[in-house]
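Bumping with the actual sequence this time:
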Amino acid sequence: MGFKCGIVGLPNVGKSTLFNALTKTAAAQAANYPFCTIEPNVGDVAVPEPRLKKLAEIAGSKEIIPARMQFVDIAGLVKGASKGEGLGNQFLANIREVDAVAYVLRCFDDDDITHVAGKIDPIADFEVVETELMLADMESLEKRRANLEKKAKGQDKEAKAALVLVNKALEVLREGRPARTVEIDHEDKKAWLGLQLLTSKPVLFVANVDENAAADGNAYSRDVENRAGEEAAAAVVISAKIESELAQLDDAEQAEYLETLGLAEPGLNRLIRTGYDLLGLQTYFTAGPKEARAWTIRRGATAPQAAGVIHTDFEDGFIRAETISFDDYVSLNGEQGAKEAGKMRLEGRDYIVRDGDVMHFRFNK
């Protein structure tokens, strides 16, 4: 389990180029005309995790299995998409299925690549896409509202509660603000998620710059970062062109190429790390002779919930978790050394898993 990130943006901002690079496939046709992506493309990628290799070396693991995440490349939206312009409505449903939305914004000048609006303005591009998603949310809520009002008059408690949430969302949307700005009580979170609002999802701004601006950004990307701050969103500066070139190189060549560009790591690493932070995700490990494996869980997850990521039987029959911190596992040369040093802990059902924990679960079969 990683997370599912939808990639949205106007045509010709570099979405499909970025998707191809990140997934190392040519599944999404990148072409210099609008709507070349006419089906949502889903690509699985391994989550970069340098700690996993070290664990495998110590445990003598035959196989290394990283956590995985999905990118969904959704066709370029245009102004009027919520009313069916371009290929709009066909793709809005795909956004409902993702955990976070990455707005890819064009932050480079290139006369050879046309812009649908005829000018480079990443903030205006963001506002066009965000507006279309807000309009789609409003339309969806208005359709539900009449039915909920009818049920609420019949003293349907669930309908009454849902109507309160619908009205809260409509209030902010009519003011031109996304649904994610609504403050929701903890007990209403599940019902709120059930509304499946496009603009309630966490947002990640991806400033797509040219090669020369990959290390330090440019005026366009700084505008994007400032806007992300105003939106309480995350932002990443990436050059889709560089990522596309990196995808064709082996590890050694990648390292050399990145060094020449003044970059410490590929944009994919930063994108995933930022996305993990945005969604409150973390990693724990299992390690043994057969395999060393990374698992993704939400911060605050308990030991049984972490076990359930492997298999529901592990959660249902959970007894305890033999737990070693990553640092102890490495410094004490594995499970046996950690045991002898008293650094293996037996954790129960209430234990909150920490990032980097190396775990072995005991459960009733």
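The tokens above came from a reply further down the thread. The longest helix spans residues 122-153.
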